[in-house]
Amino acid sequence: MQKLTLTLVVLAALQSGAARANDYPTAARADYVFACMASNGQTQEVLQRCSCSIDVIASIVPYKRYVEAETILRMRQVSGEKSATFRDSAEHRKIVDNLKGAQAEAEIRCF
Question: What pTM did the predictor assign?
Fold first, then answer.
């Protein structure tokens, strides 16, 4: 029951942010907020801070670039020759650095 209540609170917070002009789907926002809360705590304050964080990121990084950066970061964790391009490419570094910059800005504004 408590998990359902938390989910409804998260979705309500995300819906208010979704009304802003950006292209992040609600599910992507929810995934971010759940992961953020798992790392920072399951409190109302953390919910607000994590929701703020994804709003800031969404205001800086278009969703397409966010997905690209997340994919690159996941592929960098794969060992082997085929994943080397994700670690060595200047273009991939630029995409990831852009996301990291947005995350740093979100950290400053929200936490």
Answer: 0.77
